[in-house]
Amino acid sequence: MRLTALFFALALAACAPFPELDAVGPDRAAPPQLLPIDDLLAQAGAVTADPGPALAARAAGLKARATAIAATPPAP
Question: pTM (2 decimals)?
Answer without folding.
Answer: 0.38
